[in-house]
Amino acid sequence: MEWLLGLLGGVVGGGIGGAKNPLGPVVNGAAGAVGGGVTGAIIQAAASSGLDFGQILAQVAGGGVVGAVVSAVLGFVTKAKADQAH
Question: What is the rounded CA–CA span in Å between residue 52 and residue 23?
């Protein structure tokens, strides 16, 4: 369940972090979901105890931050490659 919270946070973070890149909301959300899901799995493995409110908040926030970063980096790389092609 923890990875799902990270995944959902990543989708939101990816949409926010990639708002200005040309990839569109679906790609940004997908990139964010990957980053958030991976972060959720890492946090779950590191803290393999029961969930409390603090852990839920950490999962969603961590997934959102990583999702935003992944989406922004993906947009930056894509934009740089598109600029080189022209």
Answer: 36
What is the H or E stretch that residue 8 is in?
helix 2-17
User: Collapsing DSSP states into helix, strand and coil, what is residue 21?
Assistant: coil
| C-alpha dist (Å) from residue 15 to 5, 50, 76, 85 | 16, 29, 14, 26
Q: What is the mean pLDDT of residues 6-10?
A: 79
Tell me the CA end-to-end span of the chain in Å, nearest whole number: 45
Summarize pLDDT for 33-60 with one digit per residue, the tens.
Answer: 888 878 777 777 777 666 677 777 777 7
Which value, in Å, is the radius of gyration of the alpha carbons in the chain?
Answer: 14
Contact 43, 2 (CB under 8 A): yes
